[in-house]
Amino acid sequence: MSTRSPREKLVFDVSIGEPQSGASFAQLDLSGADLKGGTFEKVDFRGANLSDTDLREAVFTNCDLRGVDLSRSNLIHAVWHDCIAPEAKLVGADLREAQFFTSELLGADLREARLRNTNLVRCKLGRLDLSGTTSDTLQILESDTAGINLSGARLVRSLIMDADLTEASLEGTQLMSAVWMKVLLCGRDLSQVGFERVQFGNSDLTETVLRGAEFRGGISFHSAKLDGADLSGVQADVVNCFQASLIGAKLVGMRAREGTFVEADLSSADFSQADLERAVLQDAVCVGTRFNQAKLTYADFSRADVSQADFSGASMFRTRLHGITERDTTWGNRAVALGNDPALRRAETWKPTY
Question: Are strands 79-81 and 59-61 parallel, antiparallel or unpaired?
């Protein structure tokens, strides 16, 4: 009776649903093996060759996959819990619907991997290489992303939360319908990144360079920090800067028609020659803000603080200046603007008598 090799035994055990616990397959050649649906707990796969392996719906828990080769492997619906896989090679792997929880993928190579509804939650992803990949609904949540490589990646409907991307490679990255929340991008030059319907809610983009960027389909900086950022010449269909901070930001020549800057802090920002036609700046702080030569037709500054602001040369036809706070403000042709609305003022200050 012939004795099965370690490879043959593993394939057989997995085929009959036998869980693998505490086993070692280090350095083993498992390339092309059928291991779909396998359950692996505390298994040692260090340096193993799992290229072209069928691992659909496999579950890995507390496994050691350091230096493993998973190139072109099928990991659809696979789940990783508390695994370590630094320098793992997953080039061309199929990771659709795969889930990674509290796992380590430091320096792992995922170039050309297929990513759709792939989730990485509370993982260590430092130096993870996703360059050139195309993903649909990739989610990276509360993970260590120091030095992650997203250059040339096309990220459709990506969700990234609580991530530090100050050292990430983002050259040529394309963001489409992306939501990046509580992301750190301080001081980064993002002028070569492609944007289409992107949200940066509660993110820190202090001194970020977005000069000349085109925000197709709109951009949201809701409650984001953009102090000292350079958005000169930015073109945007829709801009949402509700409660954002743009202190000292440079927005010269920006096109943000119908943009929302409600309750935003625009102190010392430079909107010279910007197109803010029909923009809403209600309750905004515009202390020392420059609006020289800006297009402000039908813009709404209701209740904004425009003290020390400079409106010289600005187009202000029917610009709404209801309830503004002004001190040492420099005005252009204010005569064509709209002043206080007495009826609205009475309504805003009304208090019940009982």
Answer: parallel
What values do phi and psi take at 40, rounded to 5? Answer: -125, 120
Distance CA 38, CA 96 (A): 17
Compute the distance between CA of residue 340 and CA of residue 323 in angstroms, rounded to an integer: 6
Q: What residues in the chain have per-residue pLDDT under 50?
A: 1
- What pLDDT, on a 0 to 100 scale, did the predictor assign at position 2? 57
pTM: 0.93
| Rounded-to-5 percentages of helix, strand, coil across the chain | 5, 30, 65
- Is the CB of residue 161 less than 8 Å from the CB of residue 141? yes
Please give the C-alpha separations between residue 48 and each of 58, 81, 96, 99, in angstroms, as whole numbers: 16, 19, 22, 21
Torsion sign (Cα): 122, 123, 126, 129: negative
Q: According to DSSP H, which parts of the chain are helical? A: 6-15, 342-349
What integer pLDDT is reported at residue 138 of this predicted model?
A: 98
What does the CA dihedral 267, 272, 273, 279 come to, rounded to 10 degrees? 10
pLDDT at 108: 98
211, 230 in Cβ contact below 8 A?
Answer: yes
pLDDT score recorded for residue 1 = 44
Q: How far apart are the C-alpha atoms of 84 and 106, rounded to whole Å?
A: 9
Specify the amino acid at residue 28.
L
Phi-psi sector, 130: left (phi>0), alpha (psi -120 to 50), beta: alpha
Residue 146 is predicted with a pLDDT of 96
pLDDT reported for residue 52: 98
